Structures are given as C-alpha cells and as structure tokens.
Amino acid sequence: MTTHSTRMLILGSGPAGLSAAIYGARAGMKPILVQGIQPGGQLMTTTDVENYPGFADVIQGPWLMEQMQKQAEHVGTNLVWDTIVDVDLSRRPFRLTGDSGDVYEGDVLVIATGAQAKWLGLDSEEAMKGKGVSACATCDGFFYRGKKVAVIGGGNTAVEEALYLTNHSPDVTLIHRRDTLRAERILQERLFAHKGINVLWNKEVHRFVGGGSPEGLVALDLKDTVTGEMSTLDVEGGFVAIGHHPATELFRGHLDLDSDSYIKVEPGSTRTSIPGVFACGDVMDKIYRQAVTAAGTGCMAALDAEKFLAEADFERIAEAAE
C-alpha cells in the first residue's frame, strides 16, 4: 500500500475534473487526479462533437478528452489509474482509498465523478447507440435537422427534450409507457400546445430497428402496455430521456445530496456541505449537462479550492505567530 499526498485531490477525469486539474496545476497545487472507472467521462463514448467552443469542424469526443488529459499532465497534474472504493471526509487531509489498496490524501477534494444516462437496457438500443439512438437531444439534435424523431420518457427531461427538438425537426413524437406524464404542469401545457409534437400513450419501445447504408435507425417497434398490441413507428432519431444516475454513492452519508442524489453546492459556487470539498460537472448539475458547462464548473472548483487553501494557510500562519 502506498499513500499519495497532495494539496488538491481530484476524483473524476471528464471535462470537469480535467479543467479543475489544469487550473489547479497552474496555481501550483500539484493536483493528483484519480481517473476512476471511466477515464475521460461520457465524451469517451461520444463520436461527433459539434458544439464545443473553439473548433470550426466536427471533432471526436475521445480525441477532445485525450487533448484535455495531455494538457493537464503538461501543466503538472499527476493522473492516476485507480478506482476509489472508500472515503473519509471527517477531517483534513481528506483520505480516499483505491481499489488498488493505495491511499490518496488531499488538503482539498474536488469531486467530478459525473452522471450516467439511464437506458432502457435493450440489446438493440446498445447496438444503435450513435447510429440514431442518443440520450442527449441538446448534444445531438442538430444532426437530425428535418428528420422524424422520437423521445422516450414522461418526466421533465423528456418533455424538455421534445420541445427542444422542435427547433430541428418538424415531426417529434413523445412516447410514454403510461397515460399521464410526470413532468411539471407548465411543461405539459407547452407540450400539448405545440403542433409539432405528437404523444403516444401506453407505449414502450420493444426494439430499435436499424437499416439502410450506412446502417442507422429507421424505426421503433412499440408494444402497447395495456393491450400488448405491437406497432411500428418510422423515425430516424430516438432519444432516451428517462433520467440520469449521478455517481454519488461513495458520498452518501458524508455530503448533503438532493432528492435525486446530486451533490448539493452553495448557489454560485462549487462548495459542498463540508469545507474544503468541492463538486463540479454533472455530479452537481442536473440541468445543463454539457461538456462546456462541466468544464466551466471545473474551473470554478479549482478557483474555490485555491481560495480555500489560501485562507487556511493564512489562518495557520496567524495562529503560529500568536
């Protein structure tokens, strides 16, 4: 077992964690970043990225994360391949234990563990991801300009994504397995008032159907949840919008979480319920969930951490001088 100590310990290696690392390293905090179970975050499974500022042409998600990793290392971040299995936030330095048995100690901790989209769990869904099946309309809706699309779900996210897709598609269908929506009333009113959106009640996706050359989504096989009757809906884009799982299980009982298990932070900051612990990216943001906003909050976390350490150092020096 080896103990690794640092001024700034970062957990998570998506845009939020790597941005925090870049700013932290440039501030001289020599951060250690533990990459976790999915190095690079959700962008590692995203092919075409067209909305990240600074690139006129479409770029690939894995390439973007590779560049961020190289930049973080170049300015002085130590990237470690390990998965954290236990945390002790009861005192500083904070102490995290990896699956390897190694221990990581940090005067401050930046949590950037992200969130994962919930999927239906169909084999055909897995096969068609990136070929017409997506979990983010604001990320991929632009690629379906003028095409027929469907959104699967019945909560706020599903209704918001259906409304958003009307900016690109003249034919949007919302598919819900029940006969009432869980979304807020004001969102439902906007949905039902929109002439470009059709709602299919009591339907669930039985299969995502591929075809064409190159193969892409061409239809959804649907099953009626009341009668069991099968039907087919021709679409070129299918957006699964049934929620997200924030990766916060490690911190349950340690940090304040909201009703959806996202880490609570002070408004306008990345400060959590424990001084010296900061959260950024999708682990604390259930509204925007974009790479660029994750990177922005990663920058915020590093600046908040730098300020916290400066104040702590000042207090320690003042006490020693008394």
TrEMBL record:
Cofactor(s) in the UniProt record: FAD
Pfam families associated with the record: Pyr_redox_2
Enzyme class: oxidoreductase
Matching SUPFAM superfamilies: FAD/NAD(P)-binding domain
Any one annotated GO CC term: cytoplasm
Catalytic reactions of this protein: [thioredoxin]-dithiol + NADP(+) = [thioredoxin]-disulfide + NADPH + H(+)
Cofactor notes: Binds 1 FAD per subunit.
GO MF entries: thioredoxin-disulfide reductase (NADPH) activity
FAD/NAD(P)-binding domain ranges (all copies): 7-298
GO biological process, one term: removal of superoxide radicals
EC number, as in UniProt: 1.8.1.9
Source taxon at top rank: Bacteria
InterPro entries: FAD/NAD-bd_sf (IPR036188), FAD/NAD-binding_dom (IPR023753), Ferredoxin-NADP_redctase_2 (IPR050097), Pyr_nucl-diS_OxRdtase_2_AS (IPR008255), Thioredox_Rdtase (IPR005982)
Keyword annotations from UniProtKB, A to Z: Disulfide bond, FAD, Flavoprotein, NADP, Oxidoreductase, Redox-active center
Subunit and partners: Homodimer.
Family according to the record: Belongs to the class-II pyridine nucleotide-disulfide oxidoreductase family.
Protein name as catalogued: Thioredoxin reductase
Organism: Hephaestia caeni
